[in-house]
Amino acid sequence: DGSIVPENRGLTPFGRSVVERLAERRILCDLSHSGQRTCLDAVRHSARPVTITHTACRALVDVPRNKTDEELRLVAEKGGYVGIYFMPFLTDSGPAKAEHVARHIEHAIKICGEDHVGIGTDGPMSAVPNMAEFMEAQRQYIVQRRAQGIAAPGEREDAPFFVVDLQGPDQYRALARLLRSRGHSQARVDKIMGANFVRVARDVWG
Known about the structure:
3-stranded parallel beta sheet; mainly alpha; 7 helices; 3 strands
């Protein structure tokens, strides 16, 4: 099941065979949009490390697209990777900001350890040139998704699908500077900014 399916069913026999085939073919298994039971089942069943490439921590913001501590911990225990996204689900109200990204990274490190956490923005490299125009387009998009029954809890007209103070190519340097200012070592920041994902990718693809 996906993250917003209320039945929250586990992995089916076919699903287990898919996870097995992914491991055999050295294809990275990404569980970002999975429901909780499906995620846990897949991590336990996989013969290789798995990823949650773009998510946040449900312990901080309780919406279905964010992952529970149990899911985060198990991915780390199996050698995998958790990426924190730049999405509105980082906060309960208003636009997401860099500080919210840092808080979710820090919680994920508390649960997973610094070798299994990084970023997975789920967003663009370029900055938004016209915020009013973007927000109107997003409002229409959310209305359409709600009408189709596919909108995720936590999507809001007042919160863009990116972090307002992390835009453009410099967003990564800005986040790195913020993490250093919050007391994280350069070695840890290097892991968060890409080294952890590279390690897992090599483990699976190598």
